[in-house]
Amino acid sequence: MVKTHPMWNDFPNVQASLLECLELIIEKTTIENKEIEQTVIDLIESQGKLLRPAYFLLFSRLGNATQDAHKRITSAAASTEVLHLATLIHDDIIDESAMRRGSETVQSKHGKDVAVYTGDLLISVYFELLADATDSVDIIQLNTQSMKRVLLGEINQMTNVYNTDITYEDYLKSIKGKTAQLFELSCYEGAYFGQCDPEIIGQSRSIGQNIGIAFQMLDDILDYTQTPESLSKPVLNDVKQGIYTLPIILGLETHKEAFLPLLKKGEQLSESDLAALVSLLHETNCIERAREIAKSYSDKALASIDTLPSHPEKDALYSLTKTLLTRHY
Amino acid sequence: MVKTHPMWNDFPNVQASLLECLELIIEKTTIENKEIEQTVIDLIESQGKLLRPAYFLLFSRLGNATQDAHKRITSAAASTEVLHLATLIHDDIIDESAMRRGSETVQSKHGKDVAVYTGDLLISVYFELLADATDSVDIIQLNTQSMKRVLLGEINQMTNVYNTDITYEDYLKSIKGKTAQLFELSCYEGAYFGQCDPEIIGQSRSIGQNIGIAFQMLDDILDYTQTPESLSKPVLNDVKQGIYTLPIILGLETHKEAFLPLLKKGEQLSESDLAALVSLLHETNCIERAREIAKSYSDKALASIDTLPSHPEKDALYSLTKTLLTRHY
After folding, report:
1. Could you report the per-residue pLDDT of A227-262, keeping only the tens digit for each?
2. Residues 70-99 of A with CB under 8 A from B
3. Which helix (DSSP H) or strand (DSSP E) does residue A250 occupy?
4. For residue B309, what are the CA distances in angstroms to A283, B154, B200?
5. Which residue of A148, B14, B207, B235 shows the fewest CB atoms closer than 10 Å?
6. Are A183 and A215 in contact (CB under 8 A)?
7. Torsion angle of C-alpha atoms B297, B209, A118, B88, degrees rounded to 10
8. Dihedral in degrees, nearest 10, Cα atoms B95, B101, B103, B108
């Protein structure tokens, strides 16, 4: 029985549509190979937050689309989650991560072969859902460009691994690609498929981008402030793998001499080194400063949402964004 | 300087168009990350046979398309090679292959991370080239289904690894997906984009499928009859990895008791075991029988090509297919 993350209990309308998206994803990934089919079902049942289709659906409801568009909206909304799942699975191959969302990762449980093919299968399903949703090749092309930008963000992050000269601009470029791009696409496509007024379509992209940036920054901050239990995933993993995110980058900017000796240990960072690093981040105010920067992006997103024309679903969009960007999980 | 495989020196018209496809692929994969960009260039320069775009181009020339369609034809023809390259790179991650086309594989040279992302980037470029080539979402959808079938063929092969009860039907199903599907698509799309008469479009799929099946069977036979030097890749690799192809399957069908003791050694097969296996394949006539089966498919393809309406490029199509399916390289 497919369920959504409990956060959606407070948004029953969105929840019902998200369940339709999940059922469609399972239908489209039903194949003869039961191991791969089950891999997708396990991922779906691990109750990710479904933020990309949720933002798609919320924007779509601000528009003038009639019931006729329902199937297309479900299909295109589902496609955003499918691309997200594909990138998660392929990222876990690269990170050699053992855990994701409180469960073993696909590659840890089923091996690299299943992980590579399941990711590839999901990319084909991503374009299949899009082609089911639209007669416009321009929308397909928009998605190929978005997928490319997501990958370039990931690749940019990979290039900067263990780079202690990484700048805030490098970081922003990576997260605009790897995370914000898909939020931007989801908000825009929601507005497009929901046949919103041009002014909403026009604002949808930058709202999505600001939400995506704030979301990733917050995620990166939580990696230094939460426990594995509260996040259902390991913490302090990025730094060991040489992925320096916002708090560390702020530390390197202002207290490079203090951070370098720890960072230079690379993969050899011990538990006590990690504890020292976390203390240092707090002492140098990096966590607090990172929170302020993240807040500046979430404030921008909320301010833009606030200017959208009045609509019952606008409040849901605002309150979801507010909750999401002040979360501790 | 991009060059094609020397086999195309005998087909200068096709060669010129193939070079345009390669240049377009390089253009579309020009990105800021030089390692990944170079990875694609290296693959292109390793001079694969470019069979999929070649069949696309040959079929397109049997049609009525004018010069106006030239760019679209180049773009769609290039897309078939790009999907092929993406699957090669991802397959090498799974096989942990060290060599391909006489060069180190992407993952062996650059690591798994570059291999995963380069494959994914190529999948996005595949759909980008298609979206550049057509206004028809149906063509995009045809490609999502083809890509899915290619993957299902690969997945089916993975499922049967070390399965000594594998049947000829299992094998045929795998190669129809993993290889023949893309030949079928290339011939069909060539006929479609070249605006061929309906009778040619109608035959293009089955010609492509028969060529693809014969091509893969021949490839699998060469693995047991050639040297690493003549093929520019390692030989006898499949059987160690538990991938039982046509010759072995014929052996298991008729002389199971003779093959089982060797196959049961799995990854532990020594050089002398492999030599014994090759001798056994010859003694039990499996190589010869496999050649006959492959020939039945190439004969079907050639007979269908023969029935196509008379056209200067028809002879090139026939002679390429004849050469390709009787090759020893």
Report:
1. 877 777 777 888 999 999 999 999 999 999 999 999
2. 90, 93-94
3. helix A246-263
4. 81, 35, 8
5. B235
6. yes
7. 80
8. -10
Cα A61–chain centre separation = 21
B103, two tokens: 């060069």
Q: How far apart, in whole angstroms, are the C-alpha atoms of residue B31 and residue B118?
A: 11
Q: Measured between CB atoms, which of B114, B124, B154 is closest to A148? A: B124
Does the model's ipTM exceed the 0.90 cut?
Answer: yes
Secondary-structure percent of chain B, ordered helix, strand, coil, rounded to 5: 75, 0, 20
Give the separation between CA B128 and CA B30, rounded to whole angstroms. Answer: 13
Q: Are B242 and B161 in contact (CB under 8 A)?
A: yes
pLDDT, tens only, B302-311: 999 999 999 9
Sign of CA dihedral B268, B270, B275, B276: negative
Q: Does the beta-carbon distance from A116 to B93 stay under 8 Å? A: yes
The answer to whether residues A50 and A324 touch, using CB atoms and an 8 Å cutoff, is no
Identity at A68, one-letter amino acid code? D
What tens digit of pLDDT does each residue of B210-220 get?
999 999 999 99
CA R_g for chain A: 20
Mutate to test the interface with B, among A91, A137, A162, A243 (most CBs of B within 10 A): A137
All domains in chain B, ordered by first residue? 11-324 (1.10.600.10)
- Residue B32: pLDDT band (50, 70, 90) is confident
**Residues in chain A closer than 8 A to B76 (CB atoms):** none
Average pLDDT over every residue of B44-49: 86
| Amino acid code (one letter) for A200 | I
Q: Rounded to whole angstroms, what are the CA distances from B174 to B96, B142, B244?
A: 20, 19, 11
Element (H, E) at A100: strand A99-100
Encode pLDDT of A194-218 as tens digits: 999 999 999 999 999 999 999 999 9
Chain A nearest C-alpha distance from B130 (Å): 9
CB-CB under 8 Å, B154 with A117: yes
Those residues with Cβ within 8 angstroms of residue B225's Cβ, 6 or more apart along the chain or in another chain: B287
- The pLDDT of residue A233 is 72
